[in-house]
Amino acid sequence: MDTIDVSNLNRQFLFRSKDVGRPKADVAADFINSRIPRCRVVPHFKKIQDLDETFYRQFHIIVCGLDSIVARRWINGMLLSLLVYEDGEVDQTSIIPLVDGGTEGFKGNARVILPGLTACIDCTLELYPPQINFPMCTIATMPRLPEHCIEYVRILQWPKEIPFGDGVALDGDDPEHIQWVFQRSLERAAEFNITGVTYRLTQGVVKRIIPAVASTNAVIAAACTTEVFKLATSAYVPLSNYMVFNDVDGLYTYTFEAERKENCSACSQIPQDLHFSPSSKLQEVLDHLTESASL
């Protein structure tokens, strides 16, 4: 669903300066199809949520290069919903393996998930780094960092001033939106004698951009590709089931088997007892289910 930005060019080898502004999916597909004979990549320039189960059911293997936990949980839930159970046992012909990889600077991970058999995304949410959030009191009254000023504009000024009309959400890929936030952030920073607000930083804060290192991306991409090869050919047993990579100081890699949670809200087949008093309101039930799903 994303388009190519100048900041993307140094992280990979599919995009060139002439491609800035074009859909990433379309450019990547064109590059691969022209480079590799008899290869046919079909791009889809849209959100993963825009495609239904019929679309996902057609694949033998799914590889994730997603940039958010929310998106990973969505695809995880979709693959779990495609499973067929007979007498409490999963029909293995309904399993679509998921190969997932992610990086953050000089750190990365790769994993192989067999839905219904191994730990799923929701089973291991604690393995993902928490998203950085700033206290609202700091943003509103005591900003000290340029990021505080940008967050103030994003969270408070945008919905208050509705600069592009009612119902228009802030789009991190829209240059006009980012420019508006950038200018207001500069004004906010000037009030508190804060320096360091730049257009690039504004875009990074709004889009939650995580610094990327091309070499780390290449290592994780290679690991994911190797696992796809194993799964597609049955040449070797795939990763079981989580690999950590770190080259911040030297080179470190470690593989371990993440275990399924019996009470996982996504993949557990064990009935969960929910106890509510007769006077409980629907909102209390919804709050409980929402909290359970986010743990």
Automatic annotation (TrEMBL):
A Pfam family this chain is assigned to: ThiF
PROSITE patterns in the cross-refs: UBIQUITIN_ACTIVAT_2
Catalytic activity: ATP + [NEDD8 protein] + [E1 NEDD8-activating enzyme]-L-cysteine = AMP + diphosphate + [E1 NEDD8-activating enzyme]-S-[NEDD8 protein]-yl-L-cysteine
Every THIF-type NAD/FAD binding fold domain range: 1-265
Record pathway: Protein modification; protein neddylation
Entry's EC annotation: 6.2.1.64
Key words of the record: ATP-binding, Ligase, Nucleotide-binding, Ubl conjugation pathway
Active-site residues, record numbering mapped to chain: 137 (glycyl thioester intermediate)
Top-level EC class as recorded in UniProt: ligase
Entry similarity comment: Belongs to the ubiquitin-activating E1 family. UBA3 subfamily.
Protein name: NEDD8-activating enzyme E1 catalytic subunit
Gene designation per UniProt: UBA3_2
